[in-house]
Design brief:
There is one protein chain. The chain is of the alpha+beta class. It has 4 domains: 2-82 and 279-369, no CATH class; 97-266, Serine Threonine Protein Phosphatase 5, Tetratricopeptide repeat; 397-464, Helix Hairpins; 487-647, Histidine kinase-like ATPase, C-terminal domain (Heat Shock Protein 90, 2-Layer Sandwich). It has helices at 3-35, 45-49, 54-64, 100-108, 111-124, 128-144, 148-159, 169-189, 193-203, 221-237, 245-267, 309-323, 374-445, 451-482, 495-512, 532-548, 580-586, 607-617; strands at 73-77, 83-85, 282-284, 291-298, 301-308, 328-333, 339-342, 352-355, 364-369, 491-493, 516-521, 528-530, 555-562, 566-573, 621-627, 631-639. The strands form 4 sheets. It has a 5-stranded antiparallel sheet with strand order 2-1-5-4-3. The structure holds adenosine-5'-diphosphate. Adenosine-5'-diphosphate binds next to helix 16 and helix 18. Adenosine-5'-diphosphate is lined by residues 541, 545-546, 548-549, 573, 575-578, 586, 591-594, 603-609, 632.
Length: 649
């Protein structure tokens, strides 16, 4: 693996970690922290001000025993560390001495006697609980005597005592027995209060128009469970289960919460066992695998709230939903390292771990890739991108290198050509100038034989002058062309005039050198929109080249004819010709096939580039046919613009 790929993997990894870290922070740290409030670690102040015991019992009822409560049970300890809820032992089976005699009378069927004795015992006893028991058994005897109304009245009084908060647990047990007994009485009597009584007990709540709270904070949890199960049975027997379905659901939740609390109380009978638990931190409590404990303090009480694993799943549910996808999985571990949420089967290495937020600080969240090779894939994908980018860059470098080389090469060539040009210009200017000077000097000195010779000399001077002028004209045109200063004066021009002017400029030269020149004009021809002088320059250059690049037996032809939307000027010679490559280059500035100073012909390699420039400015075309040793044909096509025959010349 190359260092680049390794680095890339690290970079990809870091990028992914950053993205998921931000998301996970929100969903597994901030969100659970905000969920902490549902566990009421700071109950409203007024609760702690409520009468002793009630507030805590109410807390259990509100937070643990209601169907939508977030606790599944609760242990409450007083300041001495003793368990105050759930109350686990009750003396229900204890028989007060003074009640043995009346109970025996009751068994024998001496019900009146029994009632009398129960009443007497109730009056005489010091024990509130014994009094309650005596009254309850009296009610039982009244029922047996079919004195229903009296029995119900007494049982109701016992079932809803005036001061339930101050009651001890033994007495609360009797109250609960009274309630179950009352339910039986109501049922038999088909009393309209039957339903309300069941509802109040099952729900452990008062309805708007009902008197007396059913709360019995000191009742032992087992007795409450017994009472609720009894009430559910009675409701079902009486066919009220459907009508009381919400209350039964509520009761079942309470039964469950009481049951969980009893079970947890066996593990933590006092606060000693709780000392090792940190406060305000959710911890799995052994040996139950589905229950978690949350220890916190409320005034002088220590509380261990019981939380179900389902509840914890709910806290992390949103995070699981948001972060998990086909690629990424999440596992949430509790303080014992057991998986609370996420795929239990995954055993790979997570790329991100963090402590959950709030009271779930002992929980660890691990974010991992379902497919471990994802980094490698990502990195190799990235590496592939790099390789291709590298290849592309290399290609680009090579290409630009080639272009640069070409440009530099052209530049070098251009410089060489320019140098040649300077040499050529000097040479080309010097040649006519020096020959003119010799001729003029000869004439001045009178060293000529006859008038005829003098005239001949003057003609030679005139020719050299003409050559020089043409050369200078070309230089000037080129210079203007280069500086983009060449302005054309476009008018309607007759192609014949153009041809005649050009031929006129070279006529003497052709005649003097015995050129076999032939001009063919295929009339009629349309007018062309052109700069006449410029087009004359084009033809002069082409004709001059035809002259220059032909050997002794010069045959030159100029044809002017009409093509499809064009007027064509074709200059043909029987000269040295050019190869294809030479043809291509001939139009470049300063290009000359033979650039040696010893070449026979004059010129600066500008003629054809000027031709090209002018023709293009007229939106025309140049077509060249040339063959080395056989000759060349340069055809210039200038758009006629209007092929209307009326305008023909
Ligand atoms: P120059 O001033 O050298 O004539 P041109 O631009 O007119 O410059 O021509 C460029 C070159 O093209 C010439 O040097 C010559 O080698 C070649 N060339 C131009 N016309 C002809 C032709 N009719 N026959 C053969 N070669 C030609």
């Amino acid at each position: 693996m190359t260092q680049a790929v390794r680095n890339e993997r690290l970079a990809v990894r870091q990028k992914l970690i950053d993205v998921y870290n931000e998301k996970a922070q929100q969903l597994f740290v901030e969100l659970p922290d905000s969920y902490s409030s549902r566990f009421y670690l700071n109950p409203p102040e007024e609760w702690s001000k409520t009468q002793n015991g009630f507030s805590l019992y109410a807390m259990f009822e509100l937070f643990a025993a209601v169907p939508n409560g977030h606790y599944e049970g609760m242990l409450i300890y007083d300041s001495s560390g003793a368990l105050v809820y759930p109350i686990v032992d009750s003396n229900i089976n204890q028989w007060p001495e003074e009640l043995i005699e009346p109970f025996q009378q009751e068994l024998k069927g001496n019900l009146r006697k029994a009632i009398e004795q129960y009443e007497k015992a109730a009056e005489q006893t010091q024990s509130e609980t014994t009094r309650y028991k005596a009254r309850l058994w009296e009610a039982r005897c009244l029922d047996k005597l079919d004195r229903k109304k009296e029995a119900v009245a007494l049982a109701y009084k016992l079932s809803y005592p005036a001061n339930p908060e101050g009651m001890d647990s033994e007495m609360a047990v009797v109250v609960i027995h009274s309630r179950v007994f009352l339910a039986g009485l109501y049922e038999k009597a088909d009393d309209e209060n039957f339903y309300y009584h069941l509802r109040r007990i099952l729900r452990n709540g008062r309805y708007n128009n009902e008197p007396d709270d059913p709360y019995l904070p000191s009742a032992p949890a087992e007795t409450i469970i017994w009472q609720l199960n009894k009430m559910i049975d009675i409701a079902q027997e009486a066919g009220l289960a459907e009508k009381l379905d919400r209350e039964i659901e509520y009761a079942k939740k309470r039964i469950n919460a009481h049951f969980n609390s009893i079970e947890a109380a066996e593990i933590y009978p006092d606060t000693e066992g709780l000392n090792k638990l940190p406060s305000r931190a959710v911890r799995r409590i052994e040996p139950r695998s589905d229950l978690y404990g949350l220890k916190f303090y409320l005034e002088d009480k220590t509380i261990l709230g019981l939380i179900s694993s389902e509840e914890i799943l709910e806290v992390f549910a949103e995070g699981m939903k948001e972060v998990q996808d086909d690629t990424v999985g999440v596992q949430v571990y509790d303080n014992l390292g057991q998986i609370v949420a996420g795929d239990v089967n995954f055993v790979g290495k997570p790329f991100l771990t963090m402590e959950a937020g709030g009271i779930f600080g002992d929980f660890e969240v691990a974010v991992y890739f379902r497919d471990n090779s994802v980094f490698e894939n990502a990195a190799s994908r990235q590496a592939a991108i790099y390789i291709w980018t590298g290849v592309l860059v290399a290609v680009l470098i090579l290409a630009s290198g080639a272009i640069a080389t070409q440009a530099i090469g052209r530049q070098i060539r251009l410089n060489r050509l320019k140098n040649n040009f300077i040499a050529t210009v000097t040479h080309e200017l010097k040649t006519p100038l020096s020959s003119m000077r010799v001729l003029v000097d000869t004439l001045l000195e009178g060293n000529y034989e006859s008038e005829k010779t003098a005239t001949e000399y003057l003609r030679l001077i005139s020719r050299e002058n003409e050559r020089l002028s043409r050369l200078i004209d070309n230089f000037l045109t080129f210079s203007r062309m280069e500086r983009n200063k060449q302005a054309f004066e476009i008018t309607a021009v007759s192609p014949i005039e153009v041809a005649n002017s050009a031929v006129g400029a070279l006529q003497a030269k052709f005649e003097n050198n015995g050129v076999d020149f032939n001009m063919e004009i295929a009339k009629p021809l349309p007018m062309i929109e052109a700069d006449k002088d410029a087009l004359v320059t084009v033809l002069v250059n082409l004709l001059d080249n035809a002259f220059k690049y032909t050997n002794e037996d010069k045959r030159i032809e100029l044809k002017v004819f009409r093509g499809n939307g064009f007027v064509c000027f074709a200059v043909k010679d029987n000269g040295i010709g050019m190869t294809r490559r030479q043809v291509k280059m001939a139009f470049d500035r300063f290009y000359q096939v033979d650039s040696s100073l010893s070449r026979r012909t004059e010129g600066a390699g500008l003629g054809l580039s000027i031709v090209k420039f002018i023709v293009e400015a007229h939106k025309g075309e140049i077509v060249v046919h040339s063959e080395p040793g056989k000759g060349s044909e340069f055809m210039v096509k200038i758009p006629s613009g209007n092929s209307n025959p009326e305008e023909r010349i």
